[in-house]
Structures are given as C-alpha cells and as structure tokens.
Amino acid sequence: MINHKKYMKYAIKLAKKGTFTTSSNPIVGCVIVKNNIIVGKGWHKKRGSEHAEIIALNMAKNLSYGAIMYVTLEPCSHYGLTSPCYKKIISSGIREIFISIKDPNPKVNGTSIQKLKKSGIKVHVGLLKKKNKFLNREFFKWIKTKNPWINLKIAMSFDGKIATKSGESKWITSKKSRQEVHKLRAKNAAILTTSNTVLHDNPLLNVRLKEMNCLDKKYFYKKKFIQPIRIIIDSKNRIQKNHKIIQIKSKIFLIRLKKDKKNWPNHVKQIIIPEYKKKINLILLFKFLGTLNIKNILVESGSIFSSSLLSLNIIDELIIYCAPIILGNKSKPIFLLNHIKKISQSKKIIFRKISKIGKDLCIKINFKKKQ
Questions:
Q1: C-alpha to C-alpha distances, 190 to 75, 119, 127, 221, nearest whole angstrom
Q2: Residue 22: how many CA atoms within 13 Å on its side-chain side?
Q3: 3-class secondary structure for the chain?
Q4: Measuring CA to CA, how many Å separate 188 from each of 78, 94, 151, 282, 297?
Q5: CA-angle at 289, arms to 285 and 291, nearest 5°
Q6: Mean pLDDT over the full length of the chain
Q7: Who's near 205: CB < 8 A, 6+ residues apart?
Q8: Angle formed by the axes of helices 52-60 and 4-15, nearest 10°
Q9: What is the band of 217 on the pLDDT scale with cuts at 50, 70, 90?
Q10: What is the crossing angle of helices 52-60 and 85-92, to 10°?
Q11: Is this prediction's pTM over 0.85?
Q12: Is the previous residue joined to 43 through a cis bond, with omega within 30 degrees of 0?
C-alpha cells in the first residue's frame, strides 16, 4: 500500500524551502514516486525560474513513466515567465497525480486539472488541502483580491506596552526574538513603516543575515534572495537623505501627498497617494501596492499607525513578541482605541499559535471576520 499522505507531507516540506525567495509567486513542492521510491523532487525557488513539477520531472527523467506525482498546488496551464507545466506532465508518462489544492489564479483555476484528466492521467484533488491552503494563504488572498496580506509585528511588555513613558523601547524583547524578526522580514515582499518611526529610531529595516539564527540560515538562499522593498508613510515629507534607511541601496518607496524637488538616489521612489482627511488614504495605498505584485507586507510601526490599521480592519495577522517585563500604566500602549466604550465594540481575535522564543512568547493572532 502506498502512503499518499506521507509523500504529500514531503512535498509540503519541500515547498517551504522557497519561503524566502518566491516573492509574488506561491510556494510549491513536488514529489514523483515509482514503486514506492522517490525518483524526482523539486520546489519553486524563485519567480521566473522553473516550477517544482519541472524540476522533479527533470530529476526523474525516464523513471517518470508510469509514476505517481504529488504536488502541493495545481500545475500552471498558461504562458507567463515559464511555459505551462501540465504539458510536460502529460508528455512525461505520469500515470497518476495527487494535487493538494486548486490554484485560485483565474488563469489556472481548474483548467490544468481538466486537461490532465482528458489526457488519461488519474487525478486526485484535495489531499492535505487545509495544510496547503494555510501554506499559501498570503498568495491566495492577493490573487483573489489584489490586496497584499498585511502582517503587523509588535514587541511589547507583559502588560501590553511598546515603550516607556520617555519613548525608550530598545530592547524590550530578547536577542532570540530579534533574530526571529529578521526571518519574518525575509518572508515578506515589503516592510512598511512611518516617518515617525524613522525619525525616532532611525532604523535600517532590512534583512541582515548575520543576525538570523543558524537554523534559519540553513534554508536561506542568499544568491536567490532579494531584500524586501522598504515603504515609508511620509505625508509631511520629513524623510531626509541622511537617514540610515536611505543609505542601504535596496528599493525604497516614500509614500507622500506631494513630491519634493530633491534629487533622490535611484533606489528611492516617491509615490503619490490621494489623501483622506489630510492623511495618506491607506485603503488606496494597499490597493496600489497590490498592483505592483506585492503579495505580503510586514508593518513595523508605533501604536498610532498600528491603531489606524486595526480600526480599518486592514491587518490579516498580528505577530506579538511578548517579553517577561512590566512597564507600568504610564508607558506607551500597544493600541490606542479610544472609541471602544463597550465589550460589544471590541475587536475579536483568534489565538492562532503561541510559542516560546528564549524568555519571550511569540503570539500569532488572526482577526474574527464579521458574521
């Protein structure tokens, strides 16, 4: 008897290897099995490079004839940066294929499944579907809505404070938590902050390999990695060339209500977004960023901007690094939601995952959708 779940789980494990490098593409893994032996395997490594199925077929060569393929996402059926995968699968002689989940991309969305069936290949859809839907939840949201998935990262004390009364916040959490943040940054296509944060902290907001932990470095493909785009909300044009964030030569977007006349370096681009009540219209901003093939964004900011995102129901996932310290009631809180007067007005959340990182807790939270 063939353990189909075992091979799909391995395909999922392979898919995760593309977490840091696939950019706007989904992460995909593929395994080819013949006589209960793996003869081919692959994962999608970078946007524009060969897909997982093609890599696995190239490894299997003639052994793919009469074999079974396990793939975490429906193979592509259209010409993009690569040619359609389903054609090579058909010509390879694969006799049976397990597809975990249908691709929601309108250019695919079941068409490959139909073509594979018509060719005589036995097709099964839905094996470990929930796991793979979660694996590509950010891509699925972006492909369906064209809005990026928004991750909000916050470091806080046990009593929900992000800084002391004087504004001191370095360092609330441990070195291990800060190492995790570099991994989190690397998983996102863009990192977004505000001019307030830049003026106060003067951060770099890039991924620094030296500061990632050893386990993460194992799966980090430096040659294929592209630094996330750094996005700064700067409605009052306060960011200057001498800020540290400008000195790092990877792409930066300054989000403004009007351009200044400065001669900015080539990696800095001023983007104008219409205003809402004399501020950047955040709904329009994220819609615009989605059109640039940005599937996920990590927000690192203070409580004022974080509260704005929360009020607008823009946050998809909240990642809290909670330190075992207490800062007291006069320190700066995680959110400023003064409009909430009753329990019925509260924001409803779901604790998705709670784990320990050194002395800290990492709490991953999703928000309940309104019924």
A1: 27, 41, 32, 18
A2: 23
A3: CCCHHHHHHHHHHHHHHHCCCCCCCCCCEEEEEECCEEEEEEECCCCCCCCHHHHHHHHHHHHHCCCEEEECCCCCCCCCCCCCHHHHHHHHCCCEEEECCCCCCCCCCCHHHHHHHHCCCEEEECCCHHHHHHHCHHHHHHHHHCCCEEEEEEEEECCCEEECCCCCCCCCCCHHHHHHHHHHHHHCCEEEEEHHHHHHHCCCCCCCHHHCCHHHHHCCCHHHCCCCEEEEECCCCCCCCCCHHHHCCCCEEEEECCCCCCCCCCCEEEEECCEECCEECHHHHHHHHHHCCCCEEEECCCHHHHHHHHHCCCCCEEEEEEECCCCCCCCEECCCCCCCCCHHHCCCEEEEEEEEECCEEEEEEEECCCC
A4: 26, 35, 9, 19, 6
A5: 120
A6: 90
A7: 185, 191, 193, 230, 245, 300
A8: 120
A9: low
A10: 20
A11: yes
A12: no
- Based on the residue annotation, tell me whether 53 is a catalytic residue of this protein: yes
Average pLDDT for residues 290-297, to the nearest whole number?
A: 95
Distances (CA, A) of 120 to 95, 102, 114, 207, 269: 8, 19, 10, 47, 51
The residue assigned the tokens 């951060």 is 203
Q: Count other C-beta atoms under 10 Å from residue 289's C-beta.
A: 25
Which amino acid, one-letter code, is at 368? K
Token reading at 168: 């001191």
User: Token pair 């700067």 is at which residue?
Assistant: 234
Burial (0-12, 13-18, 19+ Cβ within 10 Å), 47: middle
Give the pair of three-digit tokens for residue 195: 């001019």
CA gap 107, 147 in Å, rounded: 18
CA distance 351 to 363: 7
- Whether the CB-CB separation of 346 and 367 falls below 8 Å is answered with no
Q: Is the pLDDT of residue 97 over 70?
A: yes
> Which one from 53, 138, 180, 317 is the annotated catalytic residue?
53
Average pLDDT over residues 88-99: 94
Q: What is the pLDDT of residue 371?
A: 40
